[in-house]
Amino acid sequence: MLRIGMLTSGGDCQALNAAMRGVVKGVFSKRDDVEIYGFQEGYKGLIYSNFKMLTSRDFSGILTVGGTILGTSRQPFKLMRVPDKDGIDKVEAMKHTYHKLNLDCLVVLGGNGTHKTANLLREEGLNVITLPKTIDNDLWGTDMTFGFQSAVDIATDTIDRIHTTATSHSRVFIVEVMGHKVGWVTLHAGIAGGADIILLPEIPYDIDVVVDAINKRAKAGKNFTIIAVAEGAISKSDAKLSKKELKAKMAKKTYPSVAYEIAEKIQKRTNQEVRITVPGHTQRGGSPCPYDRVLSTRLGAAAANLILKKEFGYMVGIKNGNIVKVPLGEVAGKLKYVEPDSDIIQEAKMTGISFGDK
Amino acid sequence: MLRIGMLTSGGDCQALNAAMRGVVKGVFSKRDDVEIYGFQEGYKGLIYSNFKMLTSRDFSGILTVGGTILGTSRQPFKLMRVPDKDGIDKVEAMKHTYHKLNLDCLVVLGGNGTHKTANLLREEGLNVITLPKTIDNDLWGTDMTFGFQSAVDIATDTIDRIHTTATSHSRVFIVEVMGHKVGWVTLHAGIAGGADIILLPEIPYDIDVVVDAINKRAKAGKNFTIIAVAEGAISKSDAKLSKKELKAKMAKKTYPSVAYEIAEKIQKRTNQEVRITVPGHTQRGGSPCPYDRVLSTRLGAAAANLILKKEFGYMVGIKNGNIVKVPLGEVAGKLKYVEPDSDIIQEAKMTGISFGDK
Amino acid sequence: MLRIGMLTSGGDCQALNAAMRGVVKGVFSKRDDVEIYGFQEGYKGLIYSNFKMLTSRDFSGILTVGGTILGTSRQPFKLMRVPDKDGIDKVEAMKHTYHKLNLDCLVVLGGNGTHKTANLLREEGLNVITLPKTIDNDLWGTDMTFGFQSAVDIATDTIDRIHTTATSHSRVFIVEVMGHKVGWVTLHAGIAGGADIILLPEIPYDIDVVVDAINKRAKAGKNFTIIAVAEGAISKSDAKLSKKELKAKMAKKTYPSVAYEIAEKIQKRTNQEVRITVPGHTQRGGSPCPYDRVLSTRLGAAAANLILKKEFGYMVGIKNGNIVKVPLGEVAGKLKYVEPDSDIIQEAKMTGISFGDK
Amino acid sequence: MLRIGMLTSGGDCQALNAAMRGVVKGVFSKRDDVEIYGFQEGYKGLIYSNFKMLTSRDFSGILTVGGTILGTSRQPFKLMRVPDKDGIDKVEAMKHTYHKLNLDCLVVLGGNGTHKTANLLREEGLNVITLPKTIDNDLWGTDMTFGFQSAVDIATDTIDRIHTTATSHSRVFIVEVMGHKVGWVTLHAGIAGGADIILLPEIPYDIDVVVDAINKRAKAGKNFTIIAVAEGAISKSDAKLSKKELKAKMAKKTYPSVAYEIAEKIQKRTNQEVRITVPGHTQRGGSPCPYDRVLSTRLGAAAANLILKKEFGYMVGIKNGNIVKVPLGEVAGKLKYVEPDSDIIQEAKMTGISFGDK
User: Which residues of the sequence carry a binding annotation for substrate (chains A, B, C, D) (predicted)?
Assistant: First the structure.
């Protein structure tokens, strides 16, 4: 008998179900004696031994369904070693559940925080396989995460819709795209949506440069400007602050989000009306795009292959078009950033996009 | 020679171009000696005699294009009779432009405010034909305005996307839909998106009833609730305030919008996490949906017919599936509200939707 | 105890699930003692007593799901009275199942053929309520059927996509839209997609007129023409044949469908390349559009209301925006056609669309 | 002065305009003294010196517009050296136009056939830069062509829609996807759409294996099967024929396309109803997906860079995420096929997909 535990952790995104379907179809293609334990709402289900027994039928028809049939929740890594209010050590509880159920392995789908915990469990002796789930595409060790392209599609659709209004009214429009630490979604959606200015966490902006770019467009007879802003976009001056200073400054701010701060600065200095749109959680929702369905199906099938070969301790990723296994110890705790001098940034600049950095 | 002035006024929406294409194709189907004067950015173009001469070619290929090729702007009706800072009386200026160009008529596309001004120009002796443009569907005298169904489609898409996240996380989600005075878009998108609670300006809500509905769902094992809220949703207690009292109260508020106020109340009383999504301007943007393209094409063609027959002073609308002409004097200044005891509300309630009113 | 049988019959379409959800949510909103018998694959399930007991849970989350959870099949009305190969009289078998299960009523969702059988069952003494399901919108007694607007959206999307290719290549493109007897989908998708020529079953075409329209466009410098053709489009000469003559002629034809015949004629006479696209079954598939979700939810809730009031023998429809009940005897066997001289046809012609009838 | 000729050749596809926009924005970002000569309808425009002078304005706002603003046409490579009916040698004519206009280079956007001609022109001494345009993704030297992902999205959407009908009716559905020689679009859309069977030109099928797969599903209680078939799918027995024998056999066939042949075989042997859907030209049409917009913008900007550096004779492609230049001589005449034993095929098989080959 092959006993597989499975859980999805962190913010939900598209193709979680598709990836799990890939894993389950994959193992059942070679063996019949498989039991699937679906832990509910992320690591919480593993901690409190809250699970459902699932059959291959449960994974049929979910290729195109958004969200996760297991539910998910956010559990900050830094709390994993902190005992619960009822005194339970969470890591020990997870190990206990794993061993009590006599699991052969645990399949974990998640992003950066999830991978830190998964690696911890591996260090504690559990057989872990992970799949790179995040719209942010910021996981180290894989060229691409599933959820990313679907999020780009939705953010681009938002910019497209704003475009028709922008051409009709003479205004500056800011679209705030998800991404606190990395700007991949903003970068791709910005290019795809024809944004005039793109502001990323990795490239601190100078408001003077942003204002110049808007004025230059106005002079060229273009009566509107569209700015794609990542949630974590930061000004050059703020980027120079220490973490502590920045935190203190942020605590005083009354803006709902960074777009509002930038909007205020622009409005003051250009005298143009500024409008803000925040697609927010919609970027995580709905049916995965075909790209993500193919990617997640491939990753899931490859994970099944590792399980059948009893090779554990890896994240399954994609590199140069090929599925690869990456040791969890190498993945955990690292982020994949947009490089300010990378080719794609240079190419974007050649098409006239300003990143507010010079 | 037939000289037609044309302008689009107020917030942009889908199918403005489609409607103008209908008018222009319509008049050219019967006459060749037509001149089209396209006034730029709404009434402003008429006031300051800022226009472009357009040919039928300019209206080719714009059926599916969002926004308006003429540009638009908001000009509050109450300022129309107030002289400009340069001393120009705006109404006189518009009449002057009209007569100077020797126009036979003026085609005006707009919503409620636009119609008040259009009616004023009619009273001043201009030949005016209007077309009912607004996503709000709140114009009196027509069953349907163009833009509405497209906006419903986008708002519904937002709720659909939120749904997949809602089923994965245990939370309350609020989607704030456009509509300050009327709730048509919220009502339709709410039903179409399967919202559990719908809050409209026309049906003041009792927060106790809203909280009860959420708790009832939780008890029935449904771990999430989706609430569609119109921008102008109002509580029963606020609805009892005088206009002045309400204004004073609003002035003190620090919420970016009504959804944030409702979110705070719910969070306090249910201890559930609440998330807010505001599709905002995207609801006005992008290509019109097929329904709006057919409606606006029909209305445009019918407007052309009135122009050719020299019948002026009407809004072209649709009643019971038939195109009708409605005297502008009857339309101006009236709004079409959702009736709290109408059939559609009763039917929605039968499917378990709460409107927070009992 | 309230015992409700339910079945979906004929070709599937969008919003069948949404409509059933409306019925079930509606009855459960007022009573708890309800049993739902879901007959499988249309009348077949009723004939052979093949059903599933369903709870309100089964209808949760299906608002946006295409197809029908009950399955469906086509059962020609003319065979209903013909005993099966195993000697079973189908009508008697259906009555037997109904009475054996002690049903209070039968809810039937279907189109024209389905309604004939439903009316027959009513005449045989069963309590029947029907809902107007068909993409064709050809049911007498209701302004609108659910499925129609979704089908229009898909057919329009097809024309939109063809448009970009058409403007790049100099060709004639034919899009064949569903509709053997009536042209509603073709008419609406044709207008919405900006088709240059629309050919409907209700308006027999003269190929000379069609060729003239193409040549006229070429002379005006427009290098492409898009033709929306209903499956049942017919030439003037064929329309004059008797049913028998036409059948004999059709039997000899080797064209896969009518679009190929028209393409051949045009290619011969204009020397232009002609391309054909047939969206086919996709027009019935996928998630219902928001319009259909609202319509079907309203109709379903209204059907629930009739059931609760024990008013049977009606189709629930919509007239002038209001939900109405129409006696089944009036509905059965009648079709709602596009009127060749109706307003919408006149308006379409004013925008330059040719219907091939001169 | 920098004089750039530009043309799009072969079947149109998504992101042609986006790619040209990238080139033009790129060159204008560094130089002002640029003239763009847009040749009309592919090589034909170059042969007959039919062109338009274009400014950077002409390329503004076309990022999202399908088709090509230059028009296109198919000109078989094998006819390039055959003099026209008016005696013109086409290759000499193209060289003549190029030199007469004093062009610095020629930017050619096209697929496989286009590249052969482009390479010929390079051999004749012209400065040529090409961009890989084709939905087929079959160009050698680049991991990805623009148009491909957009086509996959549309083909997947077709399969998605068919899915809801398939689950409602008990039938076999065949979706015929574009691809005469290579199966990339079918493979990706098949996986993304959850097809049960995928038939590609590169993996000849055995009808017995296909029938077995259908029967196995029926036995497992799955009442429908979806088959994604490439236009160029071929049976094992046909694959053994010589080119001449195959041609002779094809000449006798009366099927409109390969899907019909396969459908007939299946219908005969499984006694199941089979339905065929052919999305056809829609796969080339409409707005490019965000993935293609980013890819084509990057490729266009990189092409601009080569032009500015006067490096000619290359196709600009993408390899492992980086933009690369590939000598035209290496690209021309080679196709990039799906490898029958590649990882993606193995992964797809693990999820239960049959390729009809075992």
Answer: 134-136, 171, 178-180, 231, 275, 281-284
Report which of D23, D15, D22 is spatially closest to residue D144, judged by C-alpha positions. Answer: D15
Residue D281: the pLDDT is 94
Q: Which residue type occupies B25?
A: K
| B291 interaction partners in chain C (CB closer than 8 Å) | 149, 152, 192, 291
Q: What is the pLDDT of residue B249?
A: 85
Tell me which residue of A174, A176, A184, A149 sits closest to A226, measured CA to CA.
A174
CA dist., res. C228 & res. C137, Å (int): 17
Residue B168 has pLDDT above 80, yes or no: yes
Distance separating alpha carbons of residues B249 and B265, to the nearest angstrom? 16
- Cα angle C143, C145, C151; round to 5: 120
Dist. CA A114–CA A132, nearest whole Å: 10
pLDDT, averaged across chain C: 95
Domains and CATH numbers, chain A: 2-147+285-331 (3.40.50.450), 151-284+339-350 (3.40.50.460)
Active-site annotation of D, residues: 136
Share of chain D above pLDDT 90, in %: 87
Mean pLDDT on D162-189: 94
Q: Do the bridges between strand D172-177 and strand D274-277 make them parallel or antiparallel, or are there none, so unpaired?
A: parallel
Binding-site residue numbers of A for substrate are: 134-136, 171, 178-180, 231, 275, 281-284
Q: In chain B, which residues have their Cβ closer than 8 Å to the Cβ of A173? A: 281
* Helices assigned H by DSSP within A226-310: 236-239, 243-252, 258-270, 290-308
User: From first to last of its 358 residues, what are the pLDDT tens digits of chain A?
Assistant: 999 999 999 999 999 999 999 999 999 999 999 999 999 999 999 999 999 999 999 999 999 999 999 999 988 888 888 888 878 899 999 999 999 999 999 999 999 999 999 999 999 999 999 999 999 999 999 999 999 999 999 999 999 999 988 888 889 999 999 999 999 999 999 999 999 999 999 999 999 999 999 999 999 988 899 999 999 999 999 999 998 998 888 888 778 889 999 999 999 999 889 999 999 999 999 999 999 999 999 999 999 999 999 999 999 999 999 999 999 999 999 999 999 999 999 999 999 999 999 8
Catalytic residue status for B136: yes
Tokens of B1: 């020679």
| Phi, psi values for residue C286, rounded to 5° | 85, 180
Q: What distance in Å separates the CA atoms of residue B232 and residue B145, rounded to the nearest whole number?
A: 20
| Nearest-CA distance B107 → chain A (Å) | 18
Q: How many residues does chain A have?
A: 358
**D113 is known to lie in a ligand binding site:** yes
The binding site of C for ATP comprises 11, 74-75, 111-114
Task: Give the pLDDT of residue D88.
Answer: 84
Instruction: Tell whether ipTM is more than 0.90.
Output: yes
pLDDT, tens only, B19-47? 999 999 999 999 999 999 999 999 999 99
Residue A85 is predicted with a pLDDT of 80
| A6 sits in which H/E element | strand A2-8
pLDDT < 50: residue spans in chain C: none
Q: Kindly determine whether residue B350 and residue C29, on different chains, have CB atoms separated by under 8 Å.
A: yes
CB contact under 8 Å between A191 and D293, yes or no, is: yes
CA atoms within 13 A on the CB side of D27: 30
Touching D: which chains, 3+ CB pairs < 8 A?
Answer: A, C
D51 Cα distance to chain centroid: 25
Question: Would the CB atoms of C25 and B188 count as touching at under 8 Å?
Answer: no
Burial A65-89 (b: 16+ CB within 10 A, else e): bbbbbbbbbbbebeebeeeeeeeee
The SS3 call for residue B33 is coil
Query: Could you give the CA distance from residue C332 to residue C329 in angstroms, rounded to a whole number?
Result: 6
Tell me the β-bridge partners of C205: C235
Instruction: Report the mean per-residue pLDDT for chain A.
Output: 95
Average pLDDT (D60-66) is 95
CB < 8 Å to C278, chain D:
278, 280
